Automatic annotation (TrEMBL):
The electron transfer flavoprotein serves as a specific electron acceptor for several dehydrogenases, including five acyl-CoA dehydrogenases, glutaryl-CoA and sarcosine dehydrogenase. It transfers the electrons to the main mitochondrial respiratory chain via ETF-ubiquinone oxidoreductase (ETF dehydrogenase). SMART domains: ETF. GO terms for cellular component: mitochondrial matrix. Heterodimer of an alpha and a beta subunit. Residues 26-231 form the Electron transfer flavoprotein alpha/beta-subunit N-terminal domain. Keywords: Electron transport, Mitochondrion, Transport. InterPro entries: ET-Flavoprotein_bsu_CS, ETF_a/b_N, ETF_b, ETF_beta_N, Rossmann-like_a/b/a_fold. GO terms for molecular function: electron transfer activity. It comes from the Eukaryota. GO terms for biological process: amino acid catabolic process; fatty acid beta-oxidation using acyl-CoA dehydrogenase. This is Probable electron transfer flavoprotein subunit beta. SUPFAM superfamilies: Adenine nucleotide alpha hydrolases-like.
Amino acid sequence: MASLKILVPVKRVIDYAVRPMVNKSKTGVVTANIKHSLNPFDELSIEEAVRLRERNTKDASKFPHKVERITALAAGPAKAQDQLRTALAMGADDAIHVQTDVGQESGTGGLEPLDVAKLLAKVVKDEGTNLVILGKQSIDDDSGQTGQMLAGLLGWPQATQASKIEFPSEGEVQITKEVDGGVETVKAKIPLVITTDLRLNEPRYASLPNIMKAKKKPLKKVSLEDLGIEAGGRLKVLKVEEPPARKGGVKVEDVDGMIAKLKELGAL
């Protein structure tokens, strides 16, 4: 029976329901006294890892991949532990908090993607991980680069934007992802890096008993220095601006009027 040691990186981001406001210096967004939550794509990743375990528990003959451990990891300020506890309440076994304030003062998303990929690569090697499931992007900086960089650093295959994950045979993974005009299916062998897309699953809510149990699960704290990572300095935010306000629409009487208006606006 194949054994899976899964690492799920998660990120603390401004809650998706909150409208971000540009700060006065226009170097980022206001983060003080703003509700933060678990990055939505990372919720999908935690959920999928837990479902893999449940599939093995339900019928090992149909899913011969025992999930030995699900580890959640977050790199960020002290408050990122809240999001790790959420991941633990959803079903992760333990957590690692890489405590750092790099990038937090600007409100532009924290560590640069390459820094995150490097620290993840170090943790993967230290923890003996053979499957990394992470969100395809975070909703604050929308870089969408970490998974690909991590696969490159490890020399592992990667499958991005997964909308379905299957294990057709032992040690083999089949990933379906949506592309323009249809779907694309790829196959790879473990070890593997997978990034998740929105249609992969519907994350469960953390129940109160599981939230209480999560407080007793192990959460290890490390620093960038402990991992030998020197962060920052590659990218500089020049300016952050809100998008221009949408202009009001114009009513036309008939099709001829619409065509004339479109020509006037240079759309035809």
